[in-house]
Amino acid sequence: MNYIILAAGMGTRLKPFTNNFPKCLVNIGNQETIVERCVRLIRKHDKTAEITIVVGFKKESIMEKFTDINFICNPFYEFTNSIVSLWFARNLLNKETVVINGDIVFSEELAKILVKKPTKPHIFMDSSIKKDGDYNVQIDEGKVVVMSKELDEYSGEYAGITKLDKNTAVKLKKELEDFIDKGYFKQWYEDVLVHMILDIDFELFYEDIANYSWTELDSISQLLFTKKIHRMEQEHE
């Protein structure tokens, strides 16, 4: 199965902490970074994983961490968003694929779910977060209705992970190409999924991960929680 980690961005919400390195290289304990932890957990639970990291800002600092990872560069990272990063990796959208935002930290128990091959397209959503969420999800009858930062009421927060079956991966590739051809460079790639839901009757499902530990690293408090997740798992090994 393909795993695409989107790590091209500049981590502006954690500046000045991330002035000199990408957010995915934040040390979360035992000299392990966010992206190293992500790769380690994927490989631990999927021995045949095909992992690609989309890099951009300070790309060499990520690339030097690994000798056996595929890399794709988004050279326009400073002026674009994740839609362009995934577009550069679009040729990988030809089989079951997991797309992971590079600032997401998840527990090992959640990693075991992440590596299961998807039979239908779905996102990870945390239904325990009903306020102060970042990019949020509204669901109805077991399906995603919309995802947005602008929702006043929502069913939970999107957890930065999307799992695609082969057919959906191929469809997403086509829609990404259409968006880029029309000049949409500053959207999140998830906005393409929302377009597919609203305009072409695409069905997107969800996995509720409210009972698992995870965080998106956008603040110092989230960094402290990230370190806590990492430390607790190290203590139990």
TrEMBL record:
Keyword presence, tRNA-binding: no
Domain of life: Bacteria
Pfam family, one: NTP_transferase
Keywords: Nucleotidyltransferase, Transferase
Residue ranges constituting the Nucleotidyl transferase domain according to the UniProt record: 4-116
GO molecular function terms attached to this record: nucleotidyltransferase activity
The protein's name: Nucleotidyl transferase domain-containing protein
Organism of provenance: candidate division WOR-3 bacterium
